[in-house]
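Lecture notes, continued. The same structure-token format from the folding unit now serves as the input rather than the output. Read the line below as a description of shape only.
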């Protein structure tokens, strides 16, 4: 009898201690991404970690995994849905299986500049898209800029005909595939982690990226020319697993939301600077030539790629495309 009671007591104490230990454990938030730390997204993830751990001490621990070190492109979305990772920030080109409307951001020559992108993302359509995947278990927390994309290759690309027959790496996006087909180039889908090697070995001859991705992945060492085309956008949607997010204690979720908003402002304020810094570093490295288009040359690229809009208009929605165009004029 005594033995049983002692045993029961010991057991109760153990469970009790375990309970206390559990209650004291911080909530672990894994934030995984595919780029280097000194890029807009890499810096944003680190700032989120810093502010979350400062303002929710002991309650939250944020683990940041850069450079595809936890999950690469192909796997990160699946991992988020399984709650194996709690925050990711894929480029807007990587959502086509979850929302056809988000393909809008890949349309070539849609936005005149990053300020227009900003207005569109903050406007009603941008906000609608942010919330458009809740039924799939994905909650959008914000848009982070990287910036406008530049074309790169081992030959000079000044007019659409220069791209003919070249193999270009594209992200997993049907719109981007069509964009290169429109200039009679050959698109090849490839995950971000494989691009440098793909370019180095000649599996692909060219790519499209903002300067920060080109420099941080050393692509300028294996591409002789960059054309400052600003022909498309590479931005991110920061997303979380809806069930995980809604299951957080209210005070933690409210604070994390406020922090995310603050980080979003910071990332979007500095993304241009980081790209400009990396453009200067590419120039200083002297391994690639940056070329600029005349207005006539740029118009030729725009005309050649224009049919892509029509192809995706039904999936994206004509009204949404109109709203994006209006953001250029405000
Ligand atoms: C790419 O695959 O080129 C980009 O989406 C990588 C990134 O996250 O910036």
């Amino acid at each position: 009898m005594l033995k049983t009671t002692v045993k029961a007591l010991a057991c109760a104490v153990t469970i009790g201690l375990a309970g206390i230990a559990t209650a004291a454990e911080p909530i672990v938030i894994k934030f995984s991404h595919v780029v280097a730390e000194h890029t807009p997204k890499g810096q944003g993830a680190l700032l989120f970690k810093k502010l979350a751990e400062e303002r929710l001490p002991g309650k939250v621990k944020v683990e940041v995994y850069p450079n595809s070190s936890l999950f690469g492109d192909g796997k990160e979305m699946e991992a988020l849905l399984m709650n194996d990772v709690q925050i990711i920030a894929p480029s807007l080109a990587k959502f086509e299986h979850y929302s056809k409307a988000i393909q809008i951001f890949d349309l070539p020559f849609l936005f005149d500049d990053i300020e227009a992108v900003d207005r569109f993302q903050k406007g009603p359509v941008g906000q609608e898209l942010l919330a458009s995947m809740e039924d799939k278990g994905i909650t959008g927390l914000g848009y982070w800029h990287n910036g406008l994309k530049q074309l790169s290759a081992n030959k000079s690309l000044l007019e659409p005909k220069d791209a003919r027959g070249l193999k270009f790496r594209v992200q997993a996006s049907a719109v981007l595939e069509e964009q290169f087909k429109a200039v009679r180039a050959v698109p090849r889908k490839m995950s971000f982690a494989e691009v440098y090697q793909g370019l180095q070995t000649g599996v692909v001859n060219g790519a499209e990226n903002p300067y920060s991705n080109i420099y941080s992945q050393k692509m300028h060492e294996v591409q002789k020319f960059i054309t400052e085309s600003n022909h498309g956008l590479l931005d991110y949607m920061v997303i979380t697993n809806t069930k995980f997010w809604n299951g957080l204690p209210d005070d933690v979720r409210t604070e994390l939301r406020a922090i995310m908003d603050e980080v979003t402002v910071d990332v979007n304020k500095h993304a241009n600077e980081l790209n400009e810094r990396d453009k200067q570093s590419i120039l200083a490295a002297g391994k690639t030539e940056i070329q600029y288009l005349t207005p006539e040359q740029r118009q030729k690229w725009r005309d050649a790629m224009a049919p892509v809009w029509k192809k995706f208009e039904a999936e994206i929605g004509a009204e949404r495309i109109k709203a994006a165009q209006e953001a250029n004029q405000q």
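Point for the exam: The radius of gyration is 23 Å.
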